[in-house]
Amino acid sequence: MTDQTAPMGQSATLEQIVQETGVFRCLECGKCTAICPISRYDHDFSPRRTVGRALMRHDEALLSDDRLWACLTCLHCSQVCPARVAYPDLTLGVRTEARRLGTATVCTHGEAIHAWMRMMMEPEAQQNRLGWLTRKGNAAEGQGSKGAGEWTTHHASRITHHGLRITDKSDTLYFVGCAPYYGALFNSLGVNGEEIARSTVRVLNALGIEPQVLRDERCCGHDLLWEGDTEGFRTLAELNAALIRESGAQRVVTACPECARALKVDYPVHGLDLGVEVLHLAELLASSEFRVPSSGQQDVTHHASLVTYQDPCRLGRHMGVYDAPRQAIGRLGLELVEMPRNRANALCCGTNGWTHCAVANKAIQVDRLREARATGAELLVTACIKCQIHLRCAMQDQLLSDEIAIEIKDLATLVAEALEDGSME
Q1: Residues of the chain with CATH 3.40.50.1860
Q2: How far apart, in Å, are the Cα atoms of 390 and each of 10, 312, 326, 383, 385?
Q3: Which of 14, 147, 243, 413 would bridge with 199, disulfide CB 3.0–4.6 Å?
Q4: pLDDT at residue 390 above 80?
Q5: What torsion do the CA atoms of 81, 352, 66, 186 make, to the nearest 10 degrees?
Q6: Average pLDDT, integer, range 62-80
Q7: pLDDT of residue 186
């Protein structure tokens, strides 16, 4: 339970955080602030100032500053720091301490997203995690009226839904994440999280894989972790880890960069090594060297032949995956034109963890959309549903809509559409 009365003072925990994140190595060169996307639009926010407060042990100012939650943890600053100060880790550590002391910020969207995450922390929670398989247009074939909510095992037995094949005997497990939930919450923006999930299964099937899909899967916990709720993160992680081990799978594939980061990096850091290979769908596509039939390529290029790509922070700077999604796009017969800032230098979507979404965040999103439009591309492809949500949200501005509007599509959906006229070769 959070201690709402503990004094900030000179926190021993913060002293440890300062030591572990290399704050004492800071050269005060200011490169972190110069490259920070938030600092560009919010001059009151500065990674250098945060490091200075930690260095000078101004604990109360550090813990109570609302802008502690503005950091995108995008790793831009870490890439340019000559002293290798682990600023994102510092942010994470201080947020964890702030939450323990009861000074955490209020999250966006009325805490709805965090509410469902914390509901999943209950071990006995009854979920309909596979409902997206049986929505309109995906009625079960040969299964009568049996719905996902009636399955009694942790993962579905071999079932076919409208051509989507899943089984509990596969060595590959598809970790769905919260995409279907996001689709429900952000449907008004044109975000279809369920279709991303169905598209991922369709792509896996085309690769000859009938994946397992966990009936009792929980949120990976990524957002809770990066907002300082390490206890909540660990609860979700332990539940997921147990289910993944029980499945017997040797490989976990996800279409969400944040799930990939959590499962591959953060779970082991917290003592939960899954003992399996963790891949983002883009990595699997690249390693499979798939080819789409010419009929499928023609179908995709009919809608857009020139595309640009948005590098998600977690997939790019956090995990170093840059080539794989580009290779997948190239095999669809599409011409990729890069934005000026791409790969390790890519501008992020402007928001992380559903906290502190403000004027600076929208300015980042608008700036990125302008870059995308300037390429002349007809389609912006991303491999992260959150990038799509945040960029689509920015496009709701009626004063800017004509200037920044562009079609956005998830990589999984794009590849799946190319398969509709045939199978991968």
Answers
A1: 291-418
A2: 38, 12, 21, 13, 9
A3: 413
A4: yes
A5: 160
A6: 94
A7: 96
Instruction: Check residue 202 and report its DSSP letter.
Output: H
Predicted confidence at residue 10, as pLDDT, reads 55
With respect to CATH, is domain 12-100 assigned 1.10.1060.10?
yes
0.85 cut: is pTM over it? yes
For residue 291, the number of C-alpha atoms closer than 13 Å in the C-beta half-sphere is 3
- Determine the Cα–Cα distance for residues 168 and 242; give it in Å rounded to an integer: 15
Radius of gyration, CA atoms only, the chain: 22
- On whether the CB atoms of residues 142 and 160 are closer than 8 A, the answer is yes
In the numeric block, which tokens belong to residue 368?
């990125």
Q: Quickly tell me which residue has 């503005």 as its tokens.
A: 70
Answer whether 415's CB lies under 8 Å from 328's CB. Answer: yes
Question: Domain 291-418 - what CATH class?
Answer: alpha beta
Strands (E), 219-269: 251-254
In this structure, are residues 343 and 311 in contact, taking their beta carbons and an 8 Å threshold? yes
* Cβ atoms of residues 334 and 303 within 8 Å: no
- pLDDT one-digit tens code per residue, 80-127: 999 999 999 999 999 999 999 998 887 788 788 999 999 999 999 989
